[in-house]
Amino acid sequence: MTIARYFGALIFASLVACSSAQAEKRVALVIGNSAYKSVPKLANPANDAGLVGGMLRKAGFDTVDVRQDLNAPEMRKALREFGTRTRDADVAVIYYAGHGMEVDGTNYLIPTDAALETDTDVYDEALPIDRVLVSIEPAKQLRLVILDACRDNPFSKTMKRTVASRAIGRGLAKVEPTTPNTMIAFAAKAGSTASDGDSRNSPFATALADHLPKPGLDLRKAFGFVRDDVLKSTANKQEPFVYGSLGGDDVPLVPAKPVATGPQPNPQSELRRDYELALQLGTRDGWEAFLAQYPEGFYANLAKGQLNKIGAEETRASAEQKAKAAEQEKTRLIAERAQKAEQEKAAAAAKAAEEARVAAEKQKQIEQARADAAEQQRKVAEAAAAKALAEKQAAEKAKAELAAKQAAEKAEKAEQAAKPAADRQLPEVGNQKVAALSPGPASTLSAADLAKSVQSELRRVGCLASAAEGEWTPAAQRSLTLFNKYAGTQFDVKLASVDALDALKAKPGRVCPLVCNFGFKADGDQCVKITCRAGYRVGDDNECEKIPEKKPVARDEPKRRDQERKDAESAAPKSQASGQMICNSAGCRPIAKGCRLGTTNSSFNPAVKLPAEICN
Prior knowledge:
The protein is built from 16 helices and 17 strands. By secondary structure, the chain is an alpha/beta fold. It has a 6-stranded mixed beta sheet with strand order 2-1-3-7-8-9, sandwiched between helices. The longest helix has about 120 residues, at about 300-420. The chain is elongated, with a radius of gyration of 58 Å. The N and C termini lie far apart (about 160 Å).
């Protein structure tokens, strides 16, 4: 074949392709997902998408949109835009290379940002095959979907099953298109997996690029050749499969080339026409083909000049490209330096902030230590003050007990002088002491130890003010009565019992309210002395009241009362007296005839019993 025939056939094929494109519009969408974020990267899908996209462009498709490494929103957008282009198209082709999976009989294409931690995530993070079919549905003559997505899926090995009965298949599930003139080609038949291969492209993509663009070759036969090549290259381990049906006419992806007819070119004018054809093409391949046919002569020299011109243009374009790349690299380096400076500035600011935080934390610890030391000093001072107050109260109490004991001894002597010896053996009602009964056989404490233990616990819960003794005294009985009142118990107050001791030990803190002597008030668990300002004193209601002005007529009244008290103490008891004595803040005196010694409630605290003279 001469060069003229070669160029003539080439131009004729171009004209035929142009007229065919005007008569039949063909569009394609090619997607290759390799860079997955949650699983290892796939090696070949991006390369396979480039190979198939280039093959479709050479096959004369009107538009071929090649997309790579799409996340879920990007894949939906690409399918939506492609669906718009297929509305006026005759042939629509979608090729997808990447991960796919089957869940409950439905096939899904997996975007690069999918995590698929559970089996239900596939409904939100992946795209079903029906969404792909919707995008090509408007095409008029042929709808072709090619899925190179049967690879071994790593998501199915890690995702959690929310329902045990939900099936997750190996590879893709069989699918039957519901619209006519629709074909779906799998890289491996349903239920099996496809190989990525050992080279730059997968065996399936390589076979597609070899057979699909053959002019006039029916698709069913072309996919049969693809099947044979893949089986051969994978040692019969991978078998591609096609689902769907077409009509009886041949349906090629690339139309057949028409047979050239008409008179043959004149051999005498072939040289000039070949040169003109090469000039119209204006490519390196065209001029090299011309020189191969005509290596010498005038036109050969012209062809060499055209080749030199093309070489100079290529050199200029290469230099321009290199300059542009250098400028971009320079801009990138400047941006990186600026970013590095900003990072260093941010790191310095973060370091300064951290140092300030550490210093503030240390200062806080120092202040906390100072506060703890001050609090400890306060507690020590309060403990010392409480100890001093307790010692003072104990001294006052011992002094009062001594005075009461001396008064009791005087009363006892007076009684012994006024009564017979037999009556002197009887204990006084007010000072009667009841010995504590021995505890039951279950207790190992003696009667004295039990009485003392019960009184110690009564002191702890705030019901007894006096010291614990080995005898069950009337004061202890009154204290147990108070405990029964405030604790809601009903222990026998005439004796100390193990049950009462256990109940007292079960109380974690104070039970009876704090009762203070006259001139003192409760402050927490302590009694503190009431201090009145100048011109005021503690009144009968235990509150500060103003001191009344002294009247001249009452100037000698206190002296008279003191004298009467001394006379009463020094005078012998009269024979008609009962022989009992009563003592209070005014002193001690004998009980009048016809009266007896008893107790009465305190006006300040009804729970406290005070000695009193009771007369009929």
